[in-house]
Request: fold
Amino acid sequence: MPETISQTGAREERKLVPGPILLLGAPGSGKGTQAKELMALWGIPQISTGDLFRANIEGGTELGRKVQAVMDRGELVSDELVNDMVEDRLKRPDIGAGYILDGFPRTLVQAAWVDGHLASGTGTLPVVAVNIKVSYNQLLRRITGRRSCTVCGTIYNIYLQPPKVDGFCDLEGTPLVRRRDDTEEVFEKRMREYDALTAPVVEHYRAQGRFAEVDGEETVEVVTAAVVQAVARLRGQE
Ligand code: AP5
Ligand code: MG
Reply:
């Protein structure tokens, strides 16, 4: 049977060598949701600094003990701890075709680390940055409604992306959990940290070029298509 236009499009997208991608955006903008879509599309890993810290907390490691209280308050973990953790993660052999840095860098010090360490990127590919833009009220709704699966990591939202059976993962059937920092009070603190420390990172990459911005208020599918198109354009493969 002949291929449809959308099948051809999907094949072309998969052929793209994505290289290292920075996914930027405020808390709840959809970085994790989009990273999982891109991971499935391109077969490259998602490296979420928030998820790595939560895994350390869960595992009772020394790093986990150091960061738990900071995260519970909605503040940023120190640049040194974050940079060391990312450096360690990037030693793994699964990053050959590229990777998605989700939630990193989020200070200018971290951005300087990225610019210094990843200047040549994977092979010869430099990093590209995509910022997901979402308004404050929508972010609040997304954060307070978020639930996730501890087994497969699928992210839901009780208002916007509900599971088929209330409270349970569609794929695993296990109970969904709410993140400890997903309260309105901690969200407000995270937003203050974002405005003070992370918004300048967005401007840093905007000024450097190899930067794109997408409207994160569209449906998950539409946002994914916009990110894919942006990466293809930034890679000169469109
Ligand atoms: P982290 O885990 O990175 O949290 P965050 O940046 O606040 O971002 P979130 O994970 O809350 O949101 P998201 O953008 O991934 O959105 P999601 O896809 O889940 O960091 C947590 C903490 O760790 C920080 O506060 C800090 O303490 C520490 N930390 C981490 N990295 C650090 C760093 N680099 N430096 C220093 N400290 C660091 O989606 C949200 C909700 O919206 C979900 O319910 C989802 O279903 C829904 N949704 C998503 N997209 C859509 C859509 N298009 N339409 C409708 N609903 C949608
Ligand atoms: Mg996330």
